[in-house]
Amino acid sequence: MLARVLVPMDDSALSEEALRHALDAHPTAEITVLHVVGGPSSMMGEAANVALADDPEAEASDHAKNVMARAAEIAAEHDREIETEVRIGHPARTIVDVAEEFDAVVIGSHSGTLAERLIVGNVAETIVRRSPVPVTVVR
After folding, report:
1. Which residue numbers delimit the UspA domain (predicted)?
2. Average pLDDT, integer, range 59-68
């Protein structure tokens, strides 16, 4: 039995399925939902708001509000409580770093548009290759 499971979530349907799977497959484990807000990069995008904010941590938490609210709804549907965490950084690297503190990672197979996956790369693929703990990929 796993004691601690990390579930990285974004605003995709597959990340919601990953959380549902983790809650069902690991009924006694502590589940932590992690949302990573991209840090400053040459592509910037929505990370620009976080990078330029007076309080980047508060801005990141605000950015993650909808994802965390949805995670709480899913946990409530399963009559479970979850922990939540928001980090700023490169999603794949941050998830791999945080994974060291857990027994396993459960992640959705992909998210974002085709263009985002081609340019930024597939986060799930990177997690599978580099995670220090077992990874379950949910489709």
Report:
1. 1-139
2. 93
Lowest mean pLDDT of 12-16, 45-49, 134-138, name the range: 45-49
Beta bridge partners of 34: 8, 85
CATH of 4-138, one of 3.40.710.10, 3.40.190.10, 3.40.50.150, 3.40.50.620: 3.40.50.620
Question: Percentage of residues in the chain with pLDDT exceeding 90?
Answer: 66
Name residue 39's amino acid. Answer: G
What's the pTM?
A: 0.88
Q: Say how many residues make up the chain.
A: 139
Task: Sort strands 135-138 and 4-8 into parallel, antiparallel or unpaired.
Answer: unpaired
Q: Which class for 76: exposed (0-12), middle (13-18), buried (19 or more C-beta within 10 A)? A: exposed
Strand partners, 107: 137
